[in-house]
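Page 42, continued from yesterday. The earlier attempt failed because a stray header line got pasted into the input along with the sequence. Redoing it now with the clean sequence only.
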Amino acid sequence: MNMSNKNNISVQQLENDKKLLLEYIFEMNSQILKYSKYSIINDSNFLSLNVEELIQFLKKSSPQQPPPTHPPTQHPPLPVIPNKSITPPQPNSTSPSTNNSNILSPTTTITTATTTSITNNNSLYNDNNKQHLIKSPQSTHSSNSSTSSNSSLNNNNINSYNNSSNDQIKRLLPDNYGILSKDQFHFASYETYLLICHFGRSNDIVDLEKEETFRIQNEISKVKHDGFIKALSPPPPSSSVNNNSSNKPPPFSSILYRLWLLKNFNFNLFDTQESLLIWLKRQLYIVLASFSNLIKYNDPYDEKDNSTINQLKLLCYNLEISFQQDPPPQSNQDTIYLTPFNNLDYFIGNLIIKSPIINNNNNNNNNNNNNNNNNNNNNNSNNNNNNNNNNSPSQQNNLNQAIQATKYQIDKIIPYQFPLNTNLFEDLLFYSLFEFDDDSGSIKFIGDEHFRVSTNLKPFSVALKITPTMEMICQLNCFILAYNAEPNERHLRRLQLSLNAIQNLIEHSLSLIQDPNTSAGPLLKATLKSIAQWLVKFLSDVHSYRGTTSSPTKDIHLCCSIYVQSREMWNYLSTSSSLSSSSSRNSIQLKTSESSFISFITSSVSKHYQRISEQFKPLTLENFSEFVESLIPEIKLNLDVYTSGFKEFNSKSKMLALTEVVNLYSADLKLVFADVYFLSPMLIQSVQSASNFQIMLEKFDLIPKDSLPPVKTYVSSVIGTWCQNQEKDFTKWFENIFKLDKFTPLDKDVKHSSSVVDMFTMFYQTISTLAKMKGSLSDNFPAFILTLSALFNANCLLTYNTQIEQMTMCNQSKHTTLYPSSLNEKIQNKGKIRKSISTSSNQISSQLQSSLTMSKAIPDPNQTVIQTKLQTMTLQKLCICVNNLDYILLNINTYINEHSFNNETLRGKLKELFSSTQITIADTLKSLVDFIGTRVVFYDCKQSIVESIYSSPPLNTNDRISDILESLSPHLKTIYNSTQSLERGNDILASVSRSFLQAMEFAILYGGPTRYFQPKDAELIEYDLELAKDFFLDRDDNGVATAVSDELFESYVANLRKVVQLLMDLSSDILIEQYDNTNKGKSSQFSKEIILCVLVHRNDKPSRSFIKKKLNDPHYLSIKKNSKINFLT
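This time it went through. Structure tokens are written below.
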């Protein structure tokens, strides 16, 4: 029993010793353990502590020199603030949004925090604010000690935080600490508005109706609004511990009011701890943001890590996690809450004392102190003792005094620091400019088109030190946000107008931007930088555009324009500091070169190409064709829509875009076709797809052919050789076939020659060979049919058509080959030609022939070649050529119908492939038929028709053209005997009839001085026209035309008949008068040239005199001898 008691005493003694030892360790390392998981250790769980684990933690976390300990009666230590100028931090940029809509608010300093995982087994998670809440360490100070000696802290206490490294502090902080969600920031902005515009005015000045309208505009519920009013109201004096003047609140527009409210607010205003924490963090984070900006005042956008800001964050975090104690604080006077708050209060007070911008007036009161401050600010030392040594005695006395911010010059306004002030303003400004349309789901502009700020926001902007210039810049930020939320051309154009207004301000009032007393300059530079960053990201990947406009081309063009403008504005501002006031009024020159957009174009194409190809990676023969099929429409869309947006800013944008595609495609092509040496269905399909892609690239005609992907280099030797052999074989076979053809009919029933039959026979044999592979080729068979068809089409059919054109000269100008020139000359009153009019027709013909012979004294080499071809190319050969082209057209249709292998898709593609060829051959046929008709009249029957008709004036009443018409009969017989069908013969007959009417027109208007007519001859000529009509229509017993149709002939003869009926029966005087009236601008059915043609064939005195006056007139020169004839028929 005694032994047992002795053992129990020994164990108990060891436990007590362990406890004492641990208490000493905790006291010596209180600053390290305070924010660790060991902060929750108390008397009840000391004995269960893993000592070995604790020692390892201390070894890892302890600084080289352990920090001094502080007796429990001392005030908690304060971090040291270096005695130097304080600069605000770079804001984190995200956009708060409302709680009820999709509208996003402007870029702000305080952004949405990512969920932070804290490795603490005792952490809580709050669903409302999406934050981990860490239990605060147990306070080692009583409520009395926390408030004692606040005004007389010694330097050792202030220096204690310096012993903890900045890295240690950062490890204790959650990631992205101090960042509000978008909704919470909007609430904070609205609370700031209430503090300034509601609480900052007396009750009789507050317009509750306007305030209600503003609340609705900002989409704040009535319940939240009332809750904000209640929470922001100064607590009654009874709720404060010290009910005296020292507890007087700062001005409502001061950032310190929020800090003062955190000190004095009533916890019982909130029904749950979660709602209290949400409100507290909103106020706390705004205070944190403002004083962080104050610390980085000289460079608001400095992104470097700042140890002072980290210390400030740590103190805020300590206050926040005090609510994780068990039990949590119950009031603002609870030690658990009051101790970390006082730490924060003193720290901020120290910031305020050292801030040159807040204490500028005070510093000016003491020149010596001011000089010392300037010297000290340049030292940039983190050691507080060194700073104190550099200060003057009076300055050191101020620094040695620990002053609470909530009691610092209580009536002085500590403003919200830049850029927090502009972020708060932009948040509410956005809601005054835009509203969310529930019906259309779009963002609707409701602001002022002249960029004037709403009167509701004016007091707000003034209190936040937002100048009118800064208001304009804030509006620009809102327009940027609106476009990013809803890419729409309207938002983009409004953004551009806003940018134009600011540019105009820069050009004419640069001093407003450069005013050192405002933040307009830094704000504008930050805005221009954000515009550039946004546009660089967008223009580098324009295919990511998800706008609501029908085409992104306009938006891309506008974005390029805005990019150029913002870039030049930035350059202008960067160099404008040295400009004089006069030079600052110079306009900003937009001189961004085309090379600035090359990277955008190539980057956009590259990223889009990678997105398309990603789903097919790795590319193989099995999926290459599918990849190409998906790539082709995207390339066309890119060139027509997306790249077109860059056109004005880079004239070679399409070439650059297509070049980038080709480079990327060529690399993939090489991988797919590398080391392929066997024939397979996938290979055939891939080769065809690559060929189609190559054809498409060539059609664009944007880059040199030698820069196109080398498709043939990567195809297998089997398929490559086979295709090349087929192409060579087609060319060789065609040359032999055409060379051996004599262009004679095969027999009396088959009127075409051998070449077209042999050509199609050769092609059908090739198709038959491929058809035997249909089973193994499967779905790739139609693609290969198309490939061979394309080769046959290009190397045979189109080549055959070209050979026919060259051989028959049907596509050459008939003025060069067949048509005569004008013979018009002035009829002489006396002389040889005048006498010849009374001679016989044989003499007239002899003179005409003699005249024509003299005009051809010098032979024309071209005419010699033409005459040789006309002699060798007989009328029968020409008709055989017509039959051959008809045969080709017929067999193309037969081939499409019979060799599409019941595949409608293939049938459609074959039709598409041959459609242009069919059109080309049909055009050649039409030209050839027209050429045959012209040849018959103006070459074969030149003497019997062209040189004979109306060559013996004056006209007599006897039959004038019957014999002439009959001279056509042998030629017409040859035509009908040589054409494959009656319909084609009638087509050629119609061409002959048209040429015959042209010959009559030649005789009447261009026949020369050996032909003249009188007004009475018009009736005779009109009769002759009817005779010609009867001849060519060849009516049956019922009067129905069996050859040329009545309508077609009338379309040919209409203009000539009009000349005969309306001009030739008029006297010369009337014709001259009509000519003169045409000269005066009066309307006439006939040109001056036609009237002159009629007058030059008159033998009376008025016409001869008139023509004599017109010998040098341009109208006469256009119809005189050797001029080109423009037939009316």
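Notes: The beta strands are 124-126, 131-133, 434-436, 443-445.
Reminder to self: strip header lines before submitting.
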